[in-house]
Write a structure and sequence with these properties.
By secondary structure, the chain is of the alpha+beta class. About 25% of the residues lie in helices and about 30% in strands. The strands form 3 sheets. It has a 7-stranded antiparallel sheet with strand order 7-6-9-10-8-11-12, with helices on both faces. A 3-stranded antiparallel sheet has the order 3-4-5, with no helix packed on it. A hairpin with a 2-residue loop joins strand 3 and strand 4. It starts with 10 loop residues before the first strand and ends with a strand.
Length: about 200
């Protein structure tokens, strides 16, 4: 488990619930106008940068099972949504276009998932495309709204991975789906529209 140290902060316990499952029991430092809020449970650490009346400007979620180099690559990746117009999501950065889209569709949360390259092992384009089509067909059969996209790292040479942004998919449902398609991580956001990197259980 990653260890986190927060200086000069009063710690208190909390428990909360969110329609999309974003909150959970943990311990956090009492927020200050420019302080860090932190939540923890086994293998999960989440940071939120707070400003003013508690608006979130940065949130990163990570797990200890993910190798450091992959965690860095995933957090640096640009998650591009092929909406009209297209927009890009970055981990830990408020995305106004995502916020607008969720408001328009009355969605409480969203997940960005791919079926490409299971366990970060490259497959042929033919294999990957077949996996992605299976994912999209499954979502359509379940009546889930999604928008095509692609995850593209800006500089490491790894080919972009076609993905889908699935509206109103809870965190637990997204974990299950990412696990089904053998993904090491996925992106999820609640109504704050701050994309977070997460792993299947």
């Amino acid at each position: 488990m990653a260890h986190v140290f927060v200086a000069q902060a009063d710690i208190f316990d909390f428990v909360g619930a969110h329609p999309c499952g974003r909150w959970f029991a943990g311990r956090v430092p009492r927020p200050s106008p420019t302080g860090w809020a932190l939540t923890k449970k086994p293998s999960l650490v989440s940071f939120s940068r707070l400003q003013g009346a508690g608006s979130i400007t940065k949130a990163i979620t990570m797990t200890s099972q993910l190798p450091a180099e992959l965690f860095q690559a995933f957090t640096e990746t640009h998650y591009i949504v092929h909406h009209e117009p297209p927009f890009t999501m970055n981990i830990g950065v408020f995305c106004p276009d995502l916020k607008k889209l969720m408001a328009e569709r009355k969605a409480l949360c969203a997940a960005f998932i791919t079926a490409w390259n299971p366990f970060a092992q490259r497959l042929s384009d033919t294999e990957n495309e077949a996996r992605q089509q299976t994912l999209k067909a499954s979502l359509s059969q379940r009546g889930l709204a999604f928008i095509n996209g692609i995850g593209q790292h800006p500089g490491n040479g790894w080919p972009g991975e076609p993905s889908v942004l699935i509206l109103d998919m809870s965190r637990e449902a997204a974990k299950a789906l990412a696990g089904q398609y053998e993904q090491l991580a996925f992106v999820w956001a609640d109504q704050t529209a701050v994309p977070a990197l997460m792993q299947p259980d």
